[in-house]
Design a protein that fits this description.
The protein is mainly alpha-helical and about 290 residues long. It has helices at about 10-25, 25-30, 35-45, 50-60, 65-85, 100-110, 120-130, 135-155, 175-185, 195-200, 210-230, 245-255, 265-275. The protein folds into 4 domains: about 10-60, no CATH class; about 65-130, no CATH class; about 135-200, no CATH class; about 210-285, no CATH class. Helix content is about 55%, strand content about 0%. The radius of gyration is 36 Å and the shape is rod-shaped. This is Helicase-associated domain-containing protein.
Amino acid sequence: MGAGPGAADPIQSRAWAWQSSTKSQDKKWFCTGSLGVAQRAARRITKLTVQQIEQLDSLGFVWDARLLAWDKGFEHLMAYQKENDHTSVPQSYNSDTGFKLGSWAHNQRKNRKSQGGGKLEPDQIEQLDSMGFAWDVPRFLWNSDFEHLRAYRKENGLTTVPFAYMSHDGFKLGFWVSSQRQACKGRGGGKLEPDQIEQLDSLGFVWDARLFAWDKGFEHLIAYQQEHDHANVPRLYTSDDGFKLGRWVYTQRTARKGQGGRKLEPDKIEQLDSMGFVWSPRCHKPLSE
């Protein structure tokens, strides 16, 4: 059997063999297999003719294998975002096909900082930005948590969240709020940036929960005095909104004596004195309620 056209000429023979291989190879294998690697190398050292390059292009040959790999990762990220509504992929996450999307996303962050031996092109950064890629995962998560507080304030009109409170989706908002107060003081291993403090302030965030609670009690006492013309509240008295004002008043008396594990600051004593607060109820008989 003949060796094919041009068998007498070694150069033509190799060209014929190469052309036959391009027609017989599966497209996917051809673009990414060992023959594909050889063709990329050949083009870099100008061993491919214009005709050969055109033939490869007609098959959709991928000249930049790294770009192909990046596009594959980006497609997986788009699928993840569509399913989860965010791009904060856990580093250990693998797609259903086995693609290590978490590692890929982590590498994009490192490559943008030129820390991973790679480099992101401006158009790749733009593509990732267009889908809200989370470059700073901790900040992304904080912003997500902040939205829970915003929703709570919209629903309840305040930001003093009970410590045990959980949002409808199971998020421990009360614990998070407490953590922000600790972080503002540099405690608990966390730290708040100035813009985060500003965001919380914009919602009327209560940094000192105890002071807020005291002010709330004082406001109830003012309302009681305006209605009854005195501040000698019976110990069992409860306001119309359910606030246990009688207990609060009793707590102020014990706190002034340094009892109950609490202490009453001078400015609070002054505020109470200014409205005729009764420190010794035995000496004052309240009017009938």
